[in-house]
Amino acid sequence: MRLSFLLCLLIAGCASHKPLPHLGEVPDFQLTDQAGKPFDRAALSGRVWVADFIYTTCPGPCPRMSSHMGRIQKATLPSVRLISFTVDPVTDTPEVLSAYGRKFGADPARWTFLTGDKARIEFLNHDGFKLGTGLDHSTRFVLVDKKGRIRGYYGIADGDPVEKISADAARLQEEGD
Description:
This protein is an alpha/beta fold. The protein is built from 5 helices and 7 strands; from the N terminus they run αβββαβαβαββα. A 7-stranded mixed beta sheet has the order 2-1-5-4-3-6-7, with helices on both faces. The longest helix is centred in the N-terminal third of the chain and has 14 residues, at 2-15. The termini are far apart.
């Protein structure tokens, strides 16, 4: 009886360390950050990062997403980057994104807000990250590993995702990739 209990504990322990799945790869992109500077996917190479898609005039879930992103910023290692893509690049200029970031306590060294060509952002949102389209965007965060591979989706509809994202980001930080 005692041996079977120990075996169950061992199996359960191993199951919790199962590698995170590979769910796709983020395509290359070049956009503009909140400081008005070019920013591309290569700037994230070798880093674990969390992405979301928001817009600054959103009357619904975007402020909640950004509040969670602020908590993710506090709950993760300083090497983890946070990227918020706007789905409304006409309104969300670099200046607007910069002010929005300040409102949510974004550390510009870690949390970048991106705007740019609407068609490119639509492609990233729908085809690259496999999320929503346009202003009908997703309420999920995306965890990306050091090689630009999508390793997890975390929705705010499923409860508070911050603890799970920070734990999984820490696991990816430890991977030898």
